[in-house]
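Entry for the shared binder. Reason: the reviewer on the internal report wants the predicted structure included alongside the sequence.
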Amino acid sequence: MAGLDDPLSIFCLAIVGTFAVVYSIWDFHWFYARPILIAMLIFVWVTFFCGFLIHDIEIGAIISQGPF
């Protein structure tokens, strides 16, 4: 299983981030860029969130458990 710090994951994050920056600077309106950008951002961030959450659960160190 690939980790979130492997080159493929970081490359995917960099591509999505670059696309977001380019879209925010030039605001182009072709090829359904906005829905594609939103879907890519949601997919990447939810993937990273789930990956880190699963990792924390596996090692038994969930952040912000509170006093209970």
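Summary line for the report: The mean pLDDT is 80.
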